[in-house]
């Protein structure tokens, strides 16, 4: 800052004997307040002031060139104003530098072109997205078998699905924020590694508590893949390619659902594919299915290791040289593949924002012990992530962020809610159909009879069974009520959903059966013997309903293919907002067709139609979410939005499941209202089709 006293002030005497001050130049001797007026002798100067009034008397210091106190204050005030002006000018220059980086980066990406490098990255990141899609289906497919294999009580059955979604929600929030500070590639490697390690260990977990813990850790890892994948891929695309290619990338989530459904259909029903080591370690086919589901994540991890970091992230962190080398690699890879290897990467200088804060942190983190340095780095990173989260509430981002939150929540609530409702409704219809065919036997008396055929879907009330033999049969969905068993013999019995209620059992032997205490309710035992019982829980070797659920999931995943193709082709032509709003409003109309779901086939048909129409809204949401936010906040914002999506899915799964078998109107109305609300709010979002990534 200039010295406030260093002003070039000139004094000039007017005809009235007053001095005026100007700041045009210095005096002859170089003193800033020395004047240039003609020299006078002392008598002349004294005569000039003789007879002046007290009010007109001059400040004595002016004879010596000393400024008046008022002039000192004025000079200080002027200096402060000048300092503020320079500070504002410097800030504006910094903003101009930051604003010029997006335009320059877009020009560089256009010069690099779209070619082989983007397609390689497309397939690698697609495999990571596919791994997330597989994980979304794994728990639902293995739950029926896992519940029986690990003797899970009814109270704990819903715990696994809930905790997996909670872990994925937390993972999206954490990894979305970290990828803005640690890097997209590094965080994606961490995410896939965590998922692989804990998913692999869960294949061998024998206890339910340990199994839930491992799946929770796996969900925490894979939950961060979606925010990172879309942020990562976006920063390698030029503006006119973003909408289309991000929409194509969304198809890999569909492929994950197809892969999980097909492998579950082909593996889980084949229980003979498992093996056992002793009596404690059981490796059944559902565990083999979980192992096969690791392949997409493993392939993605291998591919990401050979991919470079996002150059836009490097530039945001002032790592100019690394970013330049990667951009040159992209340029050369694409143009060599196009048959023009002679084209030279001409960019020599890329503007980067100031990083004084990061330099200060590095100075701090290079001092002290190793533990102190590690603590400083991690605490600083945590503070930066939290500051990034808080910055999303800035005035320029607040309104559009609120709109996005509403749209994401409404879309996730209706989509995942109906995603739970469709298979549960099919199961309920199967149950009703099964119950309608139940055979009831009342007061039957069977004596000295050999039951060598299976008993299925029957109710026996007040029956009497004397000297009967039940051997090498399956008893499925059978209930004996208030019946008498006397001198009977049960051998090699496999039972499913079979119970004895208020029965009297006398002089009866149970040999090598799974009929144990939990099967007998309020029964009176007299001289009854259990030899070599099959204690614990046992898998159901013929579960027809599971195959139907696999088929439903497979068809539902396949149904989104037309919607994916249409949204990819038209995303850059008609814009993101019309795609989102139109898809959500059209999906809301499809929900009314669910009132016509009077059969399993109708439910499957309307499910496929709903998924086909609504997938375009998902694609548009994911595209606009990465385009609305600046690069330094993109991962954080997308992570928060994806976390809200998982939160809405948790709420919807409880609400929609509660009305199964009670009414269809309330779930359908809730889905309709959410889709209409989200679709109308989406129309208020800004269009980003021609927006340069900031």
From TrEMBL:
Major facilitator superfamily (MFS) profile domain mapped to chain residues: 121-689
Residue ranges, annotated region (Disordered): 1-71
Cellular component, GO, one term: neuron projection
TM region positions: 119-146, 158-175, 187-207, 213-233, 245-268, 288-307, 401-422, 547-570, 577-598, 604-624, 636-659, 665-683
Cellular compartment(s): Cytoplasmic vesicle, Secretory vesicle, Synaptic vesicle membrane
Biological processes annotated in GO: chemical synaptic transmission; neurotransmitter transport
Membrane topology: Multi-pass membrane protein
Protein keywords: Cytoplasmic vesicle, Glycoprotein, Membrane, Neurotransmitter transport, Phosphoprotein, Synapse, Transmembrane, Transmembrane helix, Transport
Gene3D superfamilies named among the record's database cross-references: E3 ubiquitin-protein ligase SopA (2.160.20.80), MFS general substrate transporter like domains (1.20.1250.20)
UniProt cross-references to InterPro entries, sorted A to Z: LD_SV2, MFS, MFS_dom, MFS_sugar_transport-like, MFS_trans_sf, SV2
Compositionally biased residues, Acidic residues: 39-59
GO MF term set: transmembrane transporter activity
Similarity-based family: Belongs to the major facilitator superfamily.
Protein name (database record): Synaptic vesicle glycoprotein 2Ba
């Amino acid at each position: 800052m200039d010295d406030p006293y260093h002003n070039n002030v000139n004094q000039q005497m007017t005809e009235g004997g007053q001095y005026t001050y100007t700041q045009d130049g210095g005096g002859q001797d170089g003193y800033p307040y020395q004047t240039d007026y003609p020299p006078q002798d002392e008598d002349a100067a004294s005569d000039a002031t003789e007879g002046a009034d007290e009010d007109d008397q001059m400040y004595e210091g002016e004879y010596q060139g000393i400024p008046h106190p008022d002039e000192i204050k004025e000079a200080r005030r002027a200096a402060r104003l000048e300092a503020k002006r320079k500070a504002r000018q410097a800030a504006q220059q910094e903003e101009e530098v930051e604003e010029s980086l997006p335009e320059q980066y877009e020009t560089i990406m256009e010069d690099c072109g779209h070619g082989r490098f983007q397609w390689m990255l497309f397939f690698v990141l697609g495999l990571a997205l596919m791994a997330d899609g597989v994980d979304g289906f794994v728990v639902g497919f293995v739950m029926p078998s896992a519940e029986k294999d690990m003797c899970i009580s009814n109270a704990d059955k819903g715990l696994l699905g809930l905790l997996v979604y909670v872990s994925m929600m937390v993972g999206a929030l954490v990894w979305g924020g970290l990828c803005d500070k640690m890097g997209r590639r590094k965080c994606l490697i961490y995410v896939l590694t965590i998922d692989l390690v804990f998913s692999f260990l869960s294949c061998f977990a024998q206890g339910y508590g340990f199994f839930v813990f491992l799946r929770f850790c796996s969900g925490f890892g894979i939950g961060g893949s979606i925010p990172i994948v879309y942020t990562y891929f976006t920063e390698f695309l030029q503006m006119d390619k973003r909408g289309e290619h991000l929409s194509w990338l969304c198809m890999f989530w569909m492929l994950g659902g197809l892969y999980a459904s097909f492998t579950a259909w082909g593996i889980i029903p084949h229980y003979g594919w498992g093996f056992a080591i002793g009596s404690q370690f059981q490796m059944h086919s559902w565990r083999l299915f979980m192992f096969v589901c690791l392949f997409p994540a493993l392939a993605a991890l291998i591919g990401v290791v050979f991919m470079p970091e996002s150059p836009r992230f490097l530039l945001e962190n002032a790592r100019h040289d690394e970013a330049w080398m990667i951009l040159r690699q992209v340029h050369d890879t694409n143009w060599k593949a196009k048959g023009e290897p002679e084209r030279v990467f001409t960019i020599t200088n890329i503007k980067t924002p100031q990083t004084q804060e990061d330099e200060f942190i590095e100075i701090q983190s290079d001092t002290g012990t190793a533990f102190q340095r590690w603590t400083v780095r991690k605490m600083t990173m945590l503070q930066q992530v939290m500051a990034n989260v808080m910055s999303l509430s800035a005035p320029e981002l607040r309104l559009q962020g609120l709109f996005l939150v509403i749209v994401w929540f409404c879309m996730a609530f209706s989509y995942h809610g109906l995603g739970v409702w469709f298979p549960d409704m099919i199961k309920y219809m199967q149950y009703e159909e099964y119950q309608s065919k139940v055979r009831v036997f009342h007061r039957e008396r069977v004596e000295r009879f050999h039951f060598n055929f299976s008993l299925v879907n029957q109710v026996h009330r007040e029956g009497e069974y004397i000297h009967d033999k039940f051997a090498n049969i399956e008893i499925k969905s059978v209930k004996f009520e208030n019946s008498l068993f006397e001198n009977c013999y049960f051998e090699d019995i496999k039972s499913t959903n079979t119970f004895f209620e208020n029965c009297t059992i006398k002089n009866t032997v149970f040999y090598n059966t799974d009929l144990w205490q939990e099967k007998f309710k309020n029964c009176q035992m007299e001289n009854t013997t259990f030899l070599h019982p099959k204690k614990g829980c046992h898998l159901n070797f013929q579960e027809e309903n599971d195959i139907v659920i696999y088929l439903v999931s497979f068809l539902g995943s396949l149904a989104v293919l037309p919607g994916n193709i249409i949204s990819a082709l038209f995303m850059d032509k008609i814009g993101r907002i019309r795609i989102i709003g139109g898809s959500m409003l059209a999906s809301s109309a499809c929900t009314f067709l669910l009132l016509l779901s009077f059969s399993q086939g109708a439910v499957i048909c309307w499910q496929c139609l709903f998924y086909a129409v609504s997938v375009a809204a998902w694609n548009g949401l994911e595209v606009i979410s990465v385009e609305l936010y600046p690069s330094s906040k993109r991962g954080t914002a997308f992570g928060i939005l994806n976390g809200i999506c998982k939160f809405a899915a948790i709420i919807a799964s409880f609400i929609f499941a509660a009305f199964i078998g009670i009414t269809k109107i309330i779930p359908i109305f809730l889905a309709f209202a959410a889709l209409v609300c989200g679709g109308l709010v989406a129309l208020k979002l800004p269009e980003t089709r021609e927006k340069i990534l900031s």
